[in-house]
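Our preliminary data section would be incomplete without showing what the modeling component actually yields. Below, a chain of 396 amino acids is followed by its predicted structure, encoded as tokens that our downstream tools consume directly.
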Amino acid sequence: MDFTYTDEEHRFRLELREWLATALPEGWGETVFEPEDEEERYLFRRDWDKKLSSGRWAGINWPVEYGGRGATLVERGIFAEEMARAKAPESLNIIGHNLAGTTILHHGSQAQKDRFLPPIIANEEFWCQGFSEPNAGSDLASVRTKAVRKGDKYVVNGQKIWTSYAQYSQWCFALVRTDPDAPKHKGLSFLLIDMSSPGISIRPLRQISGESEFNETFFEDVEVPVENLVGQENDGWRIAMTTLAYERGPEDCLGRQVRFKQELEKLLEVCAVEPTANGVLADDPVVRQKLGRSIVEVEAMRLVALKSFSRILAGDERGPDASVIKLYWSHAAQRMNEAALDILGPAAVLSEGDDDAMAGGRFQTSFLQSKAFSIYSGSSEIQRNIIGERMLGLPR
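Predicted structure:
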């Protein structure tokens, strides 16, 4: 692997850093943070997305003719790193930029591109993903939400779950069953659904961390125009695979690696000053061993992503490498968070607002959030199956 960047890539990084320095509020990440109230945080992120659009930092991988920058794979990795390093707010429309828009670019008709891409890149219309169902999560091809064609419309009935930001979204791309008699991978279609349509109801789900970005979404006789079918009827599985390839890519891993490293650095700071009977936590050889293992794993996370970058740049398609990346960072991050709680002791499990909480309760929050890493975007069991079958040639 070549770890050096070109002059053009260095200029790209510098341009982004300079923009972030002016776009983020003064003191951001140190004394100024996102609002704690969920509704206020939504408004804050919506305004942040407008800034991203005005600076041409939304959908940077999109072609220039559709409002993007035509960013290379390396530039997308740099973008993920720098956004994480600056602790920039998460885009509210990340599903629109990275998944919906990218899928429409690859498989949509010209009319769909003309209709949907401009408001996505301008962050005027926000998107959610309608894939998972109560009985079809890891086994995504088992979705039961039905779409029956009636004239120039599909009538959709069913339920989706874990629909991120559905309560704030104007549109949803959904995997639906259009042929109940076909093999499960063959009878699926990919629809674009207006979330203001009659018959849609949304129920936010309160998570263990206290947040409620996920939702249950119900469809009851929801009418969807036929022109909102992406690709051909019953070809939805192939199209959905494009969507998932960009959900698990190496760019995402690089951004996560920076954020995990920031969490680890905070843990190191606490260990350097937290008193014990024999000095501070960092003096304990068992603690040092656990910290050392976490440092190695977080650095290995970056190298695993860069290896995938090298393969793609050499001409390989995005494929099972994404499963290796997803499997590794999910469990490495979980081990790091478990180590943090082991090292810091009972006070680490106290939540924000408790006077005795460590570092404002951040370690408890990170630990709780990490439990979902090995489930969403494809569970670890599914990733192992993909690696075994597609990389190692093992039988199904």
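The longest helix spans residues 285-313. The longest strand covers residues 214-225. Preliminary results of this kind motivate Aim 1 of the renewal.
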